[in-house]
Specification:
With 382 residues, the chain is α/β, with parallel strands linked by helices. The protein folds into 2 domains: 285 residues, TIM Barrel (Alpha-Beta Barrel), CATH 3.20.20.100; 62 residues, no CATH class. Helix content is 38%, strand content 16%. It contains 15 helices and 14 strands. The strands form 4 sheets. The chain has an 8-stranded parallel β-barrel, surrounded by 6 helices. Strands 1-2 form a two-stranded antiparallel ribbon. The chain has a two-stranded antiparallel sheet with strand order 6-7. Helix 1 packs across helix 2, helix 6 runs parallel beside helix 7 and helix 7 packs across helix 12. It is globular. 46% of the residues are buried.
Length: 382
């Protein structure tokens, strides 16, 4: 397992993490086995969006005595009513739901207090001009949460939240299908079949801008719905008409700017192991480019998706990383200090390119890589 720094914090989180789906409708003993297996595999990070009291209590028992081994995204505004979890902005319910989370998890703090599910403009205004954000800030001041997060499916709203300067972590839905869809306040649009009938080309600019903003401002992105609810793993359900593997889906997410961890949905230990096998998968097993480059009605042609297919470079240049840092600067119309430092840290730089063209022959998306490397030299000076 590899670990990445969680944005502005000093916390290291596993690249492959888990959602709480695998804890639902299981006995305490089954949850304990699941959690112990995840821990042994190197997972140290969980997103706990559900307010299911049984699952909360079972997880609390499973990590008793091991609380410091786990980084927890616990959601504010998620409550349990009529035997189901619901989102609320009613402060009496928000506060009671959070205190219930602490009690059932047998802890006195949550690492990331995640404001649950903000996709619409009206809801954004209610949250950020009202009592919810004030409550989150008070919890942070008290040490009951260490960082404030937000979950969203809408890149425009997510960017607005980040631009407030109050959000440290963003839980966002990412996969190659969703990345082609425009922003919407209706989350159902992301998987509506009719939205995939029209030709789609490249990553939606709002989503790309969101990832670049998070990279620039050092906001950690944690990923939900990497498998599209399982649809991407099934050729009959995938909008692409072909099945991707968990390793390909996870690698796609981890190559997006700003992403630090993928909350891989796993309902059982077998699914958990399938996701964690990403850590030992070969570059060929992780490679999502052959799928994306051969999909009818969908095209990433001319757009670098940072897949690494351009490698190996005869001069040792990490072309995918150079392109990523270059794109970040072009989007920001400046050279953020963090991006410059990341570029400086590369073992080889764009100026070492001898224009042999091997990378362009390898690229499945017909990217003008040599031109992009020349642009990198203009931006970074070497």
């Amino acid at each position: 397992m590899k670990y990445r720094k969680l944005g502005r914090s000093n916390i290291e989180v596993s690249e492959v993490s888990i959602g709480c789906e695998g804890l639902m409708e299981k006995s305490d003993e089954e949850v304990k086995r699941f959690v112990d297996e995840a821990h042994q595999l190197g997972v140290n990070f969980i997103d706990f969006y559900s307010s299911n009291p049984t699952a909360r209590s079972a997880f609390g028992k499973a990590i008793k005595g091991q609380r410091k081994d786990w980084i927890i995204e616990g959601h504010l505004c998620s409550v349990w009513k009529n035997d189901q979890y619901l989102r609320t902005r009613k402060m009496s319910e928000v506060k009671a739901g959070f205190e219930d989370l602490l009690t059932r998890l047998q802890t006195d703090y949550i690492d990331i207090g995640m404001i649950h599910y903000v996709d619409g403009e009206k809801d954004f205004q209610e949250v950020f001009q009202g009592e919810v954000i004030a409550y989150a800030q008070e919890l942070k001041k008290q040490g009951k949460i260490h960082f404030i997060g937000l979950s969203s499916h809408n890149p425009v709203i997510a960017m607005k939240a980040i631009q407030t300067g109050l959000i440290d972590v963003l839980l966002f839905s990412i996969n190659p299908c969703y990345d082609m869809q425009p922003a919407s306040e209706n989350v159902d649009d992301l998987w509506a079949d009719e939205n995939y009938e029209k030709p789609l080309t490249n990553i939606d600019p709002d989503r790309q801008a969101l990832y670049e903003l998070c990279e620039k401002d050092n906001i950690a992105i944690t990923v939900m719905k990497a498998f599209g609810g399982g649809d991407l793993l099934d050729a009959n359900l995938s909008p692409f008409g072909v099945a991707m593997t968990p390793q390909q889906c996870i690698h796609y997410c981890l190559t997006r700017p700003g992403v630090v961890s993928v909350m891989a949905g796993a309902h059982n230990i077998a699914e958990l192991k399938a996701s964690v096998s990403y850590c030992t998968a070969s570059p060929q097993e992780r490679d999502y480019a052959p799928v994306l480059s051969c999909i009818p009605k969908h095209s990433f042609i001319g757009n670098c998706v940072y897949c690494g297919h351009c490698a190996p470079c005869v001069k040792g240049i990490d072309v995918a990383s150079v392109n990523k840092f270059t794109d970040l600067c072009i989007a920001q119309k400046s050279v953020p200090e963090t991006v410059r430092e990341h570029y400086e840290a590369l073992s080889h730089h764009a100026s070492e390119c001898i224009e042999c063209g091997m990378c362009m022959r390898n690229c499945p998306f017909q990217v003008e890589i040599i031109s992009k490397l020349k642009k990198a030299v203009e931006i970074f000076g070497k």
